[in-house]
Structures are given as C-alpha cells and as structure tokens.
Amino acid sequence: MSNVLEIVTSRKLTHEQKVASLAHAAEDSLFILDIPEKTKYYFDINAIDDLFEGHAPYRPRYIMPNYEKFVKNGSEFLRIEPPQDLDELLSGLMILYKHVPSITGFPVFLGDMDKLIEPFLEGVSDEEAKKKLRLFLNFLDRTITDSFCHANLGPEPTRAARLILELEKELQNAVPNFTLKYDPDITPDDIAEQGIYTSLFCANPAIANHKIHRETYPTDYGISSCYNVLPIGGGAYTLSRLTLPGLAKVAENPNHFLTELLPDCLEALGNYMNERIVFLVEQSGFYETSFLVKEGLIHSDHFLGMLGITGLAECTNLLMGESGKRYGHDEEADDLAEQIMTIISDFAATFPAKYSKIANGHFMLHAQVGMDYDIGITSGVRIPVGDEPTSIYDHLKHSARFHRLITTGCGDIFPFETTGRNNPSAILDIVKGAFSLGSKYLSFYEQDSDLVRITGYLVKRSEMEKYRNEQVVLQGTTHLGAPNYEHNRLQDRKVRGL
Amino acid sequence: MSRAPINRIIPSSLVDGPGNRTSIFLQGCNLACSYCHNPETQMVCNHCGKCVPGCPSGALTVVNQRVVWDSEVCLQCDQCIKVCPSFSSPRVRNMTAEEVFQEVQKNIPFIRGITTSGGECSLFPNFLKELFAIAKDHGLTCLIDSNGTTDFSRLSDLMELTDGVMLDVKAWNEQVYRNVTKGPTNTVVKKNLQYLSNCNKLEELRIVCLPGEVDAEAVINGIWQSIGEKARNVKLKLIKFRKYGVKGRLHQTASPDDVYMEELLQIANDLGFENAIIV
Asked: Do A422 and B14 touch (CB under 8 A)?
C-alpha cells in the first residue's frame, strides 16, 4: 500500500499497521540505490524481486540477537540487570524483544526459548511455571502482531520445551512460530512425538533437521522469521530473490536460459544485493548506533546476504515446453531443475558478497516461500499444490534431493488427516526417514485446524475470514496470508493420511 | 520360494502396530466373523466371473475361464468386491516373499517395520518366514496380526523372526465364539494367549465389542485370569463395532454406545490393564 492518503484513511488497518505502512512509504520515496538499467529490466519482467525490503535499508532484514549473552549480562542501554528468577527473565525478554528491529518492525527471532527458560525453572512447579509462561506467550502473540517471528526449541529435551508445547496446544497462538531442532541422536522420541502431536492441533512446532543445520556456520544457528537458518549473534542483511518463472518466460529455449539468461540475471541480482548491503553498513548508521551491537548481542561479522529463489517448479515446467514433462514427476524435468539449481549454487559459492565474513564472502541460498502477490509461482523448490505425488514417500524423496543445495532455509508443509493425532510416532518415523535422506525442514498441520501454515508463517483461518469481510485484524500477516491462501489454492494441498 | 495370495499392500499404516509400518494383507481366512469389516479377504476367488460385467474401467476380464485383473486400469472403486457373492476379491496377486518385499522396500527409510494381516496371515507360515527373514535383513521389525487359530508354539522358526503378535480374542465362551466366527473352538486362541505372553511376543490384544454378539466383559476378565500381571502393560484395544464394510446379518447393526464402551474400559482398568483404549 504505497498511497499515503490511502494508508491514512484505511478501514482495514490497525493504527500500528498504518504507522508501519507510512514508514515504508516514506522510505520508498527515496531513490539512493544505484540500480543499472539491466537490473531494472529484470525487476520489470519479474525475474528479480526485492520483496518489499524498501529503497533505503536502515536495518538488517533479520536480526538474531545472542539472547544467552543478554541473560548473562543484562543490558546497560535498557537498564536491565541479569535476571535472577523466572519473572525477571520473562520481563527482561519482553523488554528486549521490543527493541529488536527487522524488516517487519518486529523481532523475527526470539531465541532458543526453552534453553533460555530452563535454568530459571528450578524450584518452580509446573503449574506455577505454566501460569507465567502462558502470560508471556500471550503477550508475545498479542504484541508481536506479525507472524514472521520465530522461537526455537530443542534439540536437547527440557522441561521448558515440554511446558511450552503443552501451552501452545492450549493457546492456539499464531506468534511465535516454533521450530523444534531435531536430531534423533539427541532428541528423545517422546518429546519429538509431543512436538508432532502438538502441531496437529496448532500447526506448531515445525521440525528442523539439526544434524544438517548445525554444520551451516562456524557459530551456532537459529531459525527465524518464516524459516531462515541464520547465525546467532548476526542475521541477514537482505533477502532478495530470483523469481525463476519470470526469467524463464523470456527464454528462447532451455539452453539460452541456462547459459545466458540465468548467469546474467544472477550477476545483476548479486550486484543489487551488494548495493543494499553497502548502503546498510556504510551509510545507514545502524551498526554504529544500535545498542545490540555495542552490547555484543550482534556483530556485523555475523551477517550475510540471502539469495532467494522461487518458482523452480514452474520455471522447469515452462522450459520443458510441449513435452509436458513436469517437475516432481518426470526424471527429465527433475534433472533440468537440478541443472538450474547447480548453476545458482555455483554462482552463490563464487560471486563476491560484501561484508559477509561468516559466509566466507559469499551469498547463501534460500528457498523463498513466496509473496501474497505471487500467482502461479510455487514457493522455493516445492512441488505445486494440486500436483503433489500420490505417495508422501515419493514427495519426501524429491524434497530431499532439492533441499540439498539450499543452505539457509528450505522446507515442506504437509496437512494431515485428524487420525494422525492417534499415532504421532508414525509421523516421527516419516520425519526420521526424510531427514536421513537429507530433507531439511518439515511442518505439519491438521486438515481442519484454525491455524494453517501459509508458506512458512501461520495464519488463522478465522482471521482470514474477518479480513476478507473488510474487518480490522490484529496480525499484519493475515493481510498477506489471505490472498496467498487463495492465489496458491492452499486449501487444495494434498492431505496426507496414514 | 512359496507364494501367498496378497489382497493389498498399504505403504503407510498407523493402526497396525507401533510407528509407521507397511501392512500386507493376505487373502483367505479360516473364520467367517459376523462383524468382519473386510469380508472380501475371507475366501479365495473361484473365478465365477460375476464381478466382470460391472467393472466401470474394464480392469477385469475373463481369460481361459479365469478372472484377470489389470492393476494399471483399475480405479479402486471396489465395485467388484461389493458384488462378489463369495466374500472374495478378484484383485489378488499371488506373490513370493521377494516380490512383496520389493514393494515394501520403496517405503524404506520411512517405516520402522511391516505388519502382516488378512485374511488370516498365519495360514501361510512359510511365506511369512521368508518375508520376515528379508525384512529383518533390512532392519525392519515384523508383526503378525492374527485371529490366533494357528498354534504359534508349533512355529518356533517363524516366532524367532516375529517381534510380536497382535491377537484378536473374539469371544471367551466357546458357544459365543462359534456363533461369531463360525470356527469350531477357541481353545487354540487361549493357548496362544498364554504362549505369546510367556515368550513376550504379545504385542496387542483386540476385542471387537458388540453387546449381544460378543461377550466382551468375559473376554477382558478371561484374559486377566489367564495371563494375569503379564496383561498389565499389553495394549488392549476395545474396538467399537462399526457396520462399514460388513456383509451379512450385521450389515445394518448400530454401533454400541459410548456408555457401554466406557464401562468396558472401566472394567479393564479396574482389573489392572494400564494400556487399554477404545478405538
């Protein structure tokens, strides 16, 4: 929404949403990034997309504060002493979260929540802890009104994680997203099963392949926003994407696409991302002024640029032309898709990225899950809704193949029949199998649940209904979820049963 | 290698044992239970051909006086099993253990094991032995779902390869048993109950509950008296009768109400069953 008067007089936005939209409109009135004509062309044909990141970046897109450090040291800037008990911890976090910026204006990462809480549960009964945590979780859900917000659990079992999962099932909150970091060698079956069982009531938590993700960075990692794997104590400067079908549409043939268009467009995208990073680091003043930097909760050495891709399925299908061979179904199509991915991956591994020490001076790949305005473009490397393989096993084998080259976030979503609740151990067996093949991230929800996963974030069906009826809704992400749910026919996602 | 008639293979089943398992349904049963919910697995096809004309996709044909089924063309509409007068199905494949395992293998690494069911799979002990041996080599657990009419103590080779048996205890009183199952006696079932319990292979106990038809309360008490403390941790499934799929005199009979099911659960809990559930 760019028209300022339209924002000011809107009947569909809360006050908070209006303020955020006005800030965005103000930022977009600037034109200070140097964008060459060729790059503009790629923007125009919808091959490159800045994902509404704004024309003048003044904060990193995603920030992953080192919350452990905060718990240990407190914050001088916020005048918070290191917490001594559960109340002080939760209050301290609630204050700090308010001051962690991101592209959404809200914190996108709330930390390894169970690990932060666990030490403070000593001597606190389950009942007492749940009362405090319930208030805490509801505070987060009602004040972080954007579901691109994530908290992590696991992989080690904790009492805190068990209590949080029990509460999530009860509260039916959209915020935060939870991810259970799962490693079958570390995480006991019972807590993984509790996680899966909970997700069949409230679409939370999703399950991340910890064994693979822990190798991503030399430092610890966290899962943020709607599934980005980023270094703790840093984050992502930017996420800009290559919209593959937009580029494929102007290709004369597959060879033209692979040898000319794709490398050329990637270079344009790489330069554009560097342009954003340089402005953010050198001009915006963020890293000189933020107390998060001064107090060591983040450091610019731990930031990187994520190069997103989306629509691999439609791109491949377009290039397969009249043969009618399809991504996810035909070997020839999948081989072409892999060729495309290899070119992109090689580009990311060699193109020099500015100020990206943690990523060895390169960009890292991300399976971008889509925007509300994407029509006929399937998230990342997923198989299109309605075209899923009959067998969930075939689907997962395909996912594992295409998750492989994507390092900073790539996942799949499976709605399940209600009967899945009767045997979460069966779904855990499927997760174990998929992870052993290299699948990176899986999430489940129950076919009729109010909370549904759109592309990575959660939205309530009941809220979408209100929004469609022109009512004001609390969560900003409902504005994105409602059109996305329709455009991508998410109600048609293949429901898996056992 | 021995062959067995295979009714179907379900890649992913969460009701046939712990975790995610591939279930293999064998064709042919030595009982004819009044409440059977898959009666098409009871008899082996006699090639009468009555199912052929009604097949909407043309998947069934008669060749050399035998009904032939084309799995590629089949729509799985179940019309054939609905019209079959002989409690059978034309969609049965005679397969070796190796052929069955080729289908199972597609589901690795997503499953933790296989479960053989039926029909009555224990009528094909050699086939099971061969199948389980291959499955074990691939790290899968093997469960048998059985009506308990085969004396497992005489199949020690098979039992060594079997991780557990899910045993149907259909009735306790012999007269009631005969009426429900058309089988002659439940002596072997009771013997199996003891045997499996003694060698720790009793994976699960099942009772289909329908008052007037099944003496469920007597079964629960009988199991407890028979194996006592050993029953405490065994999963006891109290299955509410449902008419779906049932052919014959019970096909329109209503399910028992929840009050009755809860009463049975209470009886089981009071005796000491800690793993009893209503399904």
From this structure: yes
